[in-house]
Task: inverse folding
DNA sequence: ACTATATAGTCAATGAGCTTGACTACAGGG
DNA sequence: CCCTGTAGTCAAGCTCATTGACTATATAGT
């Protein structure tokens, strides 16, 4: 196999994707959120989550997750509700603003994917997704390296 | 086009790749380096670089790049030499330890790519690289989101 | 039912890495 | 030769994460 720059290309594509989605979200008026918040929204949008679940999802400590929740509450994106089955826990859910931001991110992502489709074609994009599905590591999401 | 989880898969694969390379480098005895240092080595290994060039490559301020150089010097990975053509600048070059670490990273990366080759096949891996080359954004490298 | 241990969450202090601002030293064109 | 621009460093501060300690609730074992 030839000397490979695949790692650099993969990193560059990932960075470009995140930057583009972030730019799209900001362009839609949500200027006080970071990409990391989007990773949180992804989990919370699925029926809510606890702080500990969020911490695991983001691969940070529960203290860090708690701080992020506090920040998102103060910015109006999420809300705390009592957990229906555990008095210790609290269920974090999206507010209407949180949902709007999530939709904005989805729209931005769809735009990027559409541009990618014109770049390499729909067939290649589907194949790319299939290949990446085999290479992706389950569980690990948040970069921050 | 179907609702796509391609962004998540791409991020996950990128994160898995970086984590694996980092683990491989540590397993080879270099426990005091971070992935970001690898991005620096990539530039410096090509005949040396100045602090400002490094800053541009890593997409950080020159102050941050200067601090990283200071750290890498104290750990014995790089060295400062007077710049042959500019008395203001200094040429940052790899020490023998820096080269050894770079080789370790290359070995680790080759290992991961080999495992990927067994996962999706050599042909698909080549196609993947070609597609990513079209999607990658030139210049942008360091994530840190 | 009662203790013992584990888990959910928060508060406080600290740290790593990056930024802005200000400065010195040298470069290079009018 | 000045005058503007660039290379680099010093210092201070910010942001986001960490570790440590604690309270409240859950759950298993006897």
Result:
């Amino acid at each position: 196999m030839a000397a490979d720059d695949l790692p650099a290309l993969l990193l560059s594509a990932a960075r470009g994707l995140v930057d583009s989605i972030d730019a799209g979200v900001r362009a839609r008026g949500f200027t006080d959120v970071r990409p990391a918040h989007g990773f949180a929204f992804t989990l919370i949008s699925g029926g809510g989550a606890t702080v500990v679940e969020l911490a695991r999802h983001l691969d940070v400590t529960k203290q860090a997750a708690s701080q992020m929740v506090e920040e998102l509450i103060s910015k109006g994106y999420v809300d705390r509700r009592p957990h229906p089955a555990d008095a210790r826990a609290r269920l974090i859910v999206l507010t209407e603003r949180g949902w709007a931001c999530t939709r904005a991110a989805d729209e931005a992502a769809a735009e990027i994917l559409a541009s990618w489709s014109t770049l390499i074609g729909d067939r290649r994009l589907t194949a790319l997704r299939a290949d990446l599905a085999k290479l992706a590591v389950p569980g690990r999401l948040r970069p921050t390296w």
